[in-house]
Amino acid sequence: MLALKTVTPILGGGPVARSAELPSVDIIRVPTVRGHLRFWWRALYGHAYVAGGSEALALRERELWGGMGRAGNASDGDAARAWRSQVELRVTEVRPAGADTGKIDLGAPHAYALWPARNGKQEADVPRWKPGLRFKLEVTAPEGDAMAQVRNAVRAWILFGGYGSRPRRGCGSVCLEPSAPDITQWLPASADRASLRRLFGDVPLFSPELAEHPCDLPLLRGAQLFQGGASTRQRDGEKAWLAALGWLREFRQGTQPVSSGDAGLLGVARSPGEGKRAGRSNWPEADKLRRFARASRQSRSAGNAYPQVHAPRPQHSATPAWPRAGFGLPIVFHFQQKRREGGDYQPKEPDDVQLQWQRQVGGQWEQMDRLASPLIVKALPLADGRFEPIALWLERGTPNGGHVVMTQFKDAVPLTRVPFARAFRAQDDQPLFKSLQRADNLRDAFFMWLKETRKAQEA
User: Fold this and answer.
1) Residues 162, 173: contact at Cβ < 8 Å?
2) Coil, strand or helix: which one is 320?
3) I want to staple 373 with a disulfide (CB 3.0 to 4.6 A). Which of 328, 396, 431, 439 is the partner?
């Protein structure tokens, strides 16, 4: 039995995804917790089944956590068999801190994670709960290997996960109550690699040298973890969360130039804006989208030119490359249509577009729904009651045969399609955000920036 409490807002978590209704009962739902624990069990132990393929992993998961099995007949044996879960979960004594119905200002630090719950956009409204929700979780499993694996899955969920939506952006983070008698069995003294490995025993963690053949499955084996260090630890878990969330926000949208010693300026992710209006992004996607999007092509064919302020910059070529796809897909782009001084831009800026991903099935390109981010930013709870901001990049290969593509009006634009392996940077690009020039992939670019600008250390 574990006494737990949330330290960051819960986003959603009800039985219906993206529902605007607050659940009146079962605020902490056993099926939702079970889903999170199964994810972390796969992250911890999935590497052992990579060579045997997805069916071997699915079978072992069903044996432990239960499941219906795949369609088949009796000759398929265990693969078609239904399994009862060996793991029983029970949630009791739920004491919510209250529903959070306050307005979300998109300029506020927490809005970078909570924007799906912003007010005024009914189709995007998602319920949320204030930090401080308390509950007890009882977990029962057979003694031996099964119990050891389940305990590790619970540990990983507490340290790296959360409850509800957007746990990879730190929402719904949980920790043990400080009075827990065996707290050192669940929480580390520090976010360093040695302390974390001590908790998980023989399970390989944070060993990039072992990740020789990354698969689609997110794993902890070859993951990389960066910690803020002792100077960033907080008694307030929400403040530590905002620090970690701020790392990602600044890397993607920051406007303050940063020096990196002998390397000079790293540049800025976004040019400074005026008032509440954001400046122009120095990531290459917007310039490239302007070259491909339908409205801009129509404007050019009519003999019009871009307003000088929004002309695609030559440093970002017409070769498709979408570095931010490494943070997960889809990504929606809204172009500003109104001039600061009033009136619309002429010619018109592109209509809204998305970056999505596709793979070829039977000679046809099939649109895929979603690709989760491999990056987790959150507050990691420590045994002394403090929290440390961390950035965890899970080991995960890009989808086999996957391509990133721009879509507009629900149609893919074939000229923009590029394999994931070539999506980070085009050979003829000279990115205006200098951090993108100094690495071969998004993970290394982010961690290099994090070390040099926030003095974060690899665990």
Assistant:
1) yes
2) coil
3) 328
